[in-house]
Amino acid sequence: MRAAIGTQTIFKAILIFTLIFVAFITVAINYNKAYKLKNETINIFEKYEGINLQNNKTINIVNNYLRNNGYNSQGNCDINNKEYGIADLNSTKLDNSNQKYYYCISSEKIDNKVFYNIKIFSKFNIPFLGDIFTFRITGRTKGVKYFNKNQLIK
Fold first, then answer.
1. Distance of alpha carbon 112 from alpha carbon 7, whole angstroms
2. How far apart are CA 150 and CA 154, in angstroms?
3. CA 18, CA 20: separation in Å to the nearest integer?
4. pLDDT higher for 47 or 152?
5. Residue 27 is part of which domain span?
6. Contact 144, 109 (CB under 8 A)
7. Number of domains within the chain
8. According to the model, what pLDDT value does residue 39 have?
């Protein structure tokens, strides 16, 4: 009765446990990196007081930051909630057609402040299996003082 569980069964159990553990660690690392990128993006928006649609300095700085940190995840923006996305990290053009974006931005004016909602994407990628699914990580800036209508995204 002692030899009922063989070496092969124990080896399979250890292998399954190892795969589950590696998948968990991979998700945790990817999620952590995406939160760090989202938080820094929000900090940039707050530091440069949001977006000026005539001069997209903020978007250019965010694009450079994401590009320099190896960010390459894409996802869909919610067009119904008036989210606009950046389809190319080398461009500052905001777009809301139905395609993949690196990050999404929407804005709303409350009283005399503008709030920006930012959405960053993170892929769950397992070697040999590829991309399993994409996480959406959202954040909101603190209120930025409202100067003119060029701060609001369409």
1. 69
2. 8
3. 5
4. 47
5. 2-151
6. no
7. 1
8. 93
